[in-house]
């Protein structure tokens, strides 16, 4: 008689215990996966902009309809500037950027302006205001900004002749920061 | 310096919260009631100390003490005194202080009110609630401190933020601050953020009760559930108000003609609201039938976790959103905290799982119980759909390397049918009996509302010849509305027949006699009205855009908008205003002048689009000034005709009224609606007390 409850337990408990165990494993797996996903997202959000390795490739179409693809610019030093017409600090560096572009235009340097989250009318007014002549285009769907993981505007990335990133400048640039960087990259050997 | 006082009280509050956490947990474990009492006092004191810190920041914002980095960031001379004070929650440092302060306030309120009744659970309630509060106070103190000052270090190009004077530095006093983001300079700033925060922080109370009930084993009984229900209602109504005010603000300021955009932050608010709503319903199953105990625990933990999750993804920039205007060192600390909360609470739930057995099983598929189960499933399904859409950019980037953001169409298509069934269920569930419902009597109860709603929707469909989805939507609304109104009608009829009361007195007495039930029905009615607003937005919205010269008109539906002229003038708050003067007519008859405008905040270089709106109960004409030519001779307008949109706000007000009624204690109601279980008479703490 005393054995009966024990037997009952033996008979009944394995399936429920199993089910519970599976439930627990699944629950914790889901929680840990979610936490892992969040950790990864957080790491990316905190990582800041890319500043080394091969520069992510992109093709940009400028406001006049011309296109440029980064990977086709090997052998030249590329300066990628992220900006927006609504961004006051961008105005501080706009004249300096254009001036430096004109200085290096014929020396194997390419400037690309990437207009981040902007309206075309305001962007064109900004370009006209500073008489900007280098290639400038909107970042459709913020694809380029995401690839470079920018944290804000302005940010300027430097791409060496071999297509590798050689650093990023956050915030407006002042003379002679840009000249120095370009000279340094121009001095690199490229087969 | 007055700011130092705020820093000192903040530090003291932090010490109190940490002490309370450990003293109460240890006291509960060892049965040391003196320690628990002491922890309770420390918890109660943390609130006034935090209050002083909050007052100091608000005062500094008001008098523009720009030596504080936070004041320099969010306040400016151009801002009105009222906006300067609201800037408390306009930036990260201030808003987390505000958050911690409200959480401490909630905990203090519970400790003042419920100490005697839930004595056994209190040590662990204090430990859980104070651990959370200590975390947020700690974040304010160590990570995003609003009392940081600006210093100029000799030779440095940029200013330094520090609490205490760094070596070789001079204090720096800027002449003016940057001020609030222009989008935040709106009347909505006074209501939406505080109510949202009250909603979010309020859920710490039910969560802490649930954890305490699990640890002490009180979760077997129902006492904790009843204590918790009212606190959940408090948090829930604040979250509801926050959602509605947020929608109204977006409608007035963001200028896309809608009120709900499925932005990650909106979703982050919606998810705990959905699970919280599910909990408020399933709690009735536990109270009346002793069922769904595990489910309730899961829902409370889920609601609180979703509130934390929402705060996390938006405050740390993990998922980008229009609201994610802040990125900081907050991330890792917050991550550790939510990891601890998720894993800790699920582990405790697992250890106590077997004690949470249901006392009854489902007896019939047509019963109040099964309606509750279905309703809970629907709420959870919607929550999952929203959750999936919210974290999808993260998942897609992990898997494919490309961040894909899912837009409103996904959310509308995936949640629409679920909401549809939910609103039908809301109409019929209150008619179902507990345990088992006879099909015949049920049919009798719904046939009149059913036929009536079919008729109204049919007539509407015939006269308007709209899309079939709109007719279906209108049927849904009329059906649910009429079944709910029928409940009121039946109650009034019964009182009139048995007591001879006139209909008005009968109506008042009906609600007065059972606050919970009729408060709940009023909330149901409000949901139907809000649903009407969403249906109007989805199916009846008209939209047009065009450029017109002075004297020309744009036509939309039976409205004409004539552009008269453009004018520019300086506004308050440091803005330049460009305003269009337009005349709105309907079928050729002039209704009124509308002035859609664009405000340029010169310091921030940011435009804000302010719509011109003609509002009626049936529809809004919503006009945006999109662009103009420099001579001012022509302008481009975007016009929306938004049908039924005002019912969202009306429904929102009604929801507040209904919740207040439902939360109000009905005299003598407890005995009337609470079904005692066998054996409960001897073990029930309430009865032992009395």
Which descriptors would you attach to this protein?
heterodimer, A: 191 residues, alpha/beta, five-stranded mixed sheet, two-stranded antiparallel ribbon, 5 helices, 46% helix, elongated, disordered N terminus, B: 690 residues, alpha+beta, six-stranded antiparallel sheet, four-stranded antiparallel sheet, 22 helices, 13 strands, flat
Itemize the secondary structure elements and their pairings.
The complex is a heterodimer of chains A (191) and B (690).
Chain A: H1 3-47, E1 59-61, E2 67-69, E3 77-83, H2 88-104, E4 109-115, H3 120-129, E5 135-138, H4 143-147, E6 155-159, E7 165-170, H5 177-186
Parallel strand pairs in A: 3-4, 4-5
Antiparallel strand pairs in A: 1-2, 3-6, 6-7
Chain B: H1 2-30, H2 33-63, H3 69-74, H4 81-86, H5 92-113, H6 122-142, E1 149-153, E2 160-162, E3 169-171, H7 188-202, H8 204-216, H9 223-254, H10 264-289, H11 293-315, H12 330-351, H13 368-400, H14 408-428, H15 439-464, H16 468-499, H17 503-513, H18 515-539, E4 542-549, E5 553-556, E6 559-571, E7 575-586, E8 589-594, E9 597-601, E10 606-610, E11 612-615, E12 619-628, E13 634-643, H19 646-663, H20 669-673, H21 680-683, H22 685-689
Antiparallel strand pairs in B: 1-2, 1-3, 4-13, 5-6, 6-7, 7-8, 7-9, 9-10, 11-12, 12-13
